[in-house]
Design a protein that fits this description.
- By secondary structure, the chain is an alpha+beta fold.
- It has helices at residues 3-13, 48-54, 83-92, and strands at 15-20, 26-29, 35-36, 57-62, 79-82.
- It has one domain.
- The chain contains three helices and five strands, in the order H-E-E-E-H-E-E-H.
- The protein has a five-stranded antiparallel β-sheet.
- Strand 2 and strand 3 form a beta hairpin.
């Protein structure tokens, strides 16, 4: 599972994906596909691809702002996922921009 795959998933699902870095910080992939490390105050001494490879637990959080008309009980909730579960979500969804092949003959 690569960072690019998670970025596409976060955009497609309009969700934020959180995972812990080995140094105790957290990486958040926004619903816009942007990786952010809150609290980072300079050039990082780590590689996010390597940190992602070491991560085993993820938090999937819906990014939508609740509409006042909607009942809060029906809103999607944040959920904790294992690496295998998240990898299944990235593998199971079609890549953006890929269309099924058609035989025009």
């Amino acid at each position: 599972m690569k960072l690019a795959e998670l970025r596409k998933l976060s955009i497609r699902n309009q969700s934020r994906i959180h995972f812990r870095l080995r140094n105790g910080m957290e990486c958040i992939l926004s619903e816009h596909g942007i990786a952010q490390v809150p609290g980072l105050k300079g050039i990082p001494d780590f590689n996010l691809e390597e940190e992602l490879a070491a991560a085993s637990e993820f938090l999937l959080e819906p990014a939508g702002i609740p509409d006042k008309k909607n009942d809060k009980k029906n809103l999607p909730r944040s959920r904790s996922l294992t690496r295998a579960e998240l990898a299944g979500m990235t593998a199971g969804s079609p890549a953006a921009g890929t269309a099924p092949e058609h035989d025009d003959e």
